[in-house]
Amino acid sequence: MFRAVWFMLLLGILAITAMWFADNPGQVSVTWHGYVIETSAAVSVGAIATIAVLSALIYRLWVFIRGVPAGISWFRGEGRRRRGYLALSRGMVAVAAGDPGEARRQAGWANNLLEEPSLTMLLSAQSAQLAGDEDSAHKFFTKMLENPDTEFLGLRGLLNQATKNGDNYQALKWVRRAYQLKPESDWVARTMFDLAARAGLWSEASSALATAARKKQVNSAEAKHSRAVLYHQMSLEAEASCDNAKALKLSKKAVKEELEFVPAQLHLAHLLMSSGKQNKAFITLETAWAATPHPGIAHAYLSFTEANDAMARMKAAHKLAALNPKHLATKLMLANCALNAGLGGDARKILEEVSALDEAVTSNYCQLMAKVEEAEHSDIIAAREWLVRAANADADPSWVCQDCGNAADTWSSLCGACRSFDKFQWRRPSRVPGLSAPIDDDPKAPRLVSPGTRLAQEIDANGIEH
Ligand SMILES: [Zn+2]
C-alpha cells in the first residue's frame, strides 16, 4: 500500500517536472575544446540523469566482479563444511552401529574437512575405542584436555578408561579434575563419592555426597545411609588412631543417621563399654535390637553380661527378647540360650514353634535341633538325622554383596571380591556355587574391623552361640 502511494507520488512529481520543462524549455550551451553543444534545459537534465544511472550501474558491476573470487571461496568453504558434517554424522551412525572401520574412515574425513576439534576429536576417540585401540583413544582424550571446550569430555573418556582398567588411583585423579570443573554435573559428584570412598578418603567422599544429595542425585534415604557408613568408617579410623573420644562422637553420629545400621550400633556399644559406660552400651544394643534384630547384637549383649552364668544370660536374653518378641532372630536367640542353660525342652518348644516358617529351617536351625535331640533324650540317631538335614538346608543369612553375590561373615565397607563400596546386605547368600566365595586377601583392602563387628564375626562364623 505504502509502495503504491510512493509510486503514484513519484509519477506525479515527474509529470509536474516534465510539464514545467515543457513550459520553460530554456537553453543550455556547452563549449569544450572547440566543441559547442547547444540544447534545451530538459534534454540537458535528461542527459545528466542518464549518465548518473549508467555510472551507478557500472559501479555495481565493478563491485560484483570484485566479489566473485570471495564468493567462489565461500561456496567452496560451505561445501567443505557440509561434507564435513555429513562425514561426522555418518561416523556417529557407524559408532552407534558398531562398525569400527567405517567410523574411523568418517572420523578422518570429518577431521580433515571441519575445523571443530571438539566434535571430531570425540568421534575419533570413540571410533578408536570401538576398534579396540585404547591407546589411540587415550591419546585423543588426552588431546581433548588442551581445549576448554572439550576438557570435560576428555576427562570423562579418561575416567571411563581408568575405571575399565581397574586403575582407581588414575580414575580418582580424573574425577577430581572433573569435579573441579563441573561439580554440579549429574554423574560427577556420585562418581567422586564412590571413588573417594573406595580409596578411604572419607572427608572427600562426604563433600561429594553432600553435593550429590543437594542436587537430588541420591535420594534422602540413600544419602542418610551413606552418611552413616562414612561416619562409621571415620569412627573406626579414629579408634585405630587411639582417639576414642572422637571415635565415640563419630559413632554416635553414624547411629543417629541410621538406627538400623547394625555395624555402627555394635561399634558404638563396644566404644561405650570400653569407656566404662556399661548402661549406655546395653541401652544402645537394646535400641538396636528393637529396630533390627541381628545375631551380632544378641551376641554382644550376652557377652556384656555374666559370661559364665547361663541363667543370667537367659535372663538377659528374655529382657532383650521382650523388645522384639515375634522376630525369628529373637526365637533362635532364646532357643540357643535355653539349650546352653540345660533347658532342652524349652529350646525344643521354641524351635518347633518356628519350624512352620520357611525361612526358619536353615543349617543353623538343624544344628540346634540336633543338639536338642542329644541334650534332651540322648537320641544320637535323631541328632545325626538333623545334622544330615543341616548339610542340605538353606544357608543362614550373612553379609552378601549386592553387586557380585560374595558372602562374608563380617560387614566391611568394601567387597573383597568386586571392590564395590557399601554393597553388603544382611540376607541369605545365593545357592549358586562361586557366588559365595570368601573375601579375598587383597593387601590394599582396608583392614578396619571394629571389635563390635568382630563379635558379629565370631557369632556368625560359629552359629548362634554353642
Ligand atoms: Zn562384590
How would you sum up this structure, described in words?
- The protein is mostly helical and about 475 residues long.
- It has a domain at about 320-395: Serine Threonine Protein Phosphatase 5, Tetratricopeptide repeat.
- It has 20 helices and five strands.
- The protein has helices at about 1-25, 40-95, 100-115, 115-130, 135-145, 150-165, 170-180, 190-200, 200-215, 220-240, 245-255, 260-275, 280-290, 295-305, 310-320, 330-340, 345-355, 365-375, 380-390, 450-460, and strands spanning about 30, 35-40, 400, 405-410, 425.
- A hairpin with a 5-residue loop joins β3 (about 400) and β4 (about 405-410).
- α3 (about 100-115) packs antiparallel against α4 (about 115-130) and α17 runs antiparallel to α18 (about 365-375).
- The protein is rod-shaped.
- The structure holds zinc ion.
